[in-house]
Structure prediction request, 225 residues.
Amino acid sequence: RLTFRELADLADESRCFSVNEVEALYELYKKISCSIIDDGLIHKEELQLALFRTPAGKNLFLDRVFDLFDEKKNSVIEFEEFIHSISVFHPNAPLEDKIDFSFRLYDLRQTGFIEREEVKQMVVATLLESEVQLSDDLVEAILDKTFEDADTDKDNRISKEEWKAFVLKHPSVIKKMTLPTLKDTTAAFPSFVFNTQVED
Amino acid sequence: KPESMNAFALISRSQGFNLGNLFEK
Prediction:
């Protein structure tokens, strides 16, 4: 159980959440972190279970999301790390943070660029996941079109500046970086009301 | 649709990137 000071510090740091909302997110965190291994920390299998409803299988995006949430790189997501990352998904979080997070997510090999090979890998993974079959020619055509648009200096990789310009031109590509639910977290997790340390 | 030729619009549909699922009851 977190102290009021810890909750208040996390709320303060997040710049998006109130203390009550951090408490509500703690309820969600506890639920996920006890789903497989009851140690109060989120392991990759638990994040996978929460996202896919199954702990089995391998998913490229899950690996990247987990890696970004796991700031200390100790193979678990602590509550503080959970709040740090999830706050980027708040509707009021700065657009700059969302652009930065999505860039790091797609920069699979963490080279500071989103390379064409990485984009292909993610397209293929998404098609596999949704059981859609496209010919290799069509995938290459999609990549050609995307890079024509995003890779303005034509070096076959997308820099952070190019990514920013691309996102501003096509805001829908980071639509998933905003979770409207986070604006009303306390309503989504009413159970926290019974545990709250904050009086009205 | 023009979006269908946008690799990132396609990628953003992946379930692994759909954190909204965390909030599903």
Chain A has a mean pLDDT of 92. The radius of gyration of chain A is 19 Å. Residues 19-33 of chain A form the longest helix (15 residues).
